[in-house]
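Quick board copy: two proteins, each given as sequence then tokens.
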Amino acid sequence: MPVHPAFLKNLSLLRDLPAETLAVVAQKTVERSFARREMVLNKGDVGQSLCFLIEGRLQGVDFTVDGREVGLYFIDPNDYFDELSVIDGLPRPELVIAVARSRVAYLPREDARKLMFAAPKSAEQVTARMAQRLRQSSAQRTILALPNPFQRLCAQLLLLSASAGDGVEISHAPTHQEIAIMINASRETVTRAFQVLQVRGALRRDGGRFEVADLGYLRQVAEGKIEPPKAG
């Protein structure tokens, strides 16, 4: 189904477009809904559209050589994705799944390319967003090299805290299963590790967010300066 221009006005890449340009983009953009855990984009396919998340939450996912699922990054509402494949025309390096019921808008590749490179400001914004996501993916893969799941969890929480911007609160907190995918551990192991952190007072969960009460402890564990407790 087509997308109303009012929705597009909220999207980070499109919000500065003139109303008449936004109306033209809306005519070429279509929307699709996804259930939780449904695949949105398949790894290895060539992107035919620039994608925008209108509602819900998505996760970029890849696999280890032994077939384990590894979460790389999250996509939140008003953000765009699949820009790499749209730009270079090569297969996607990872897949994207819905971690909540989601609505995604698709702008055809050629129209998206014209929009992305129409002005230096747009090209700079796309380039900066790609660099940010590549750095996030690189940091995420570095975490997987840590030997202990508790250590990986602390490093993951530090990374999520940095992404949140304020360093003490993580909004839209991932579920234990989502974090387990990100650090290559079982959900049960992550649950036990969270219990250890909560008992120690380093972390609190308040509804859909984490409150990080002791960043120093998380950092020392992640850096191997404190022996990780046996969390599973």
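And the next:
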Amino acid sequence: MIEGPDFVWLHLPHCRGGVTDAALRTRWGADTRFLFDRVSPANASCHDTIADRQRRDPGFALAGRKLVCNIARLPVWTAERRRWSATVGHLSPVALDHLPPPDAILRRYDTPSVDAWVRAEHLAGDLDAVFGVDPAAADGARAPAPAADAPFTADELEMLYAANPRWSELELRLYGALALPAAYQKVA
């Protein structure tokens, strides 16, 4: 989480938050009006939702500040979450099946409602539009989203979207369609 005088940015995992964090630190890291959580696997607070932060710090208040959060297309997010959980998180395939569904995670971050979304697949333009941050301020801001380790068949994509209507609705609103890069679609 990053707190600024007029915004609070939430770090929804697997949506290029590390690059966003680096860009915002480059821009405002020396300014004491901005509070930056330490980003590390040992510091879960960097992924706080508003409710998490209020439990952790009863003095915290959103107080009229704009709420900003990164987002990625559902299959991109799902593939990255699986890759991370299996490699970095060291979860077995059985444990992966018991992770909270994407809609449950999105509900936690979008409560209260997010005012501005930064799309992982359009990071450079959205960082500029939302924060006025030069995307070149962070290495990787112009790089494409991570490649999928587990592409989906058309049937799997249909099931994924059907099982996560909240994410599907948000993706339609933010991206205009549920179309995906070819790299995430595999032939059945």
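Board note added afterward: The chain has one domain: 2-184.
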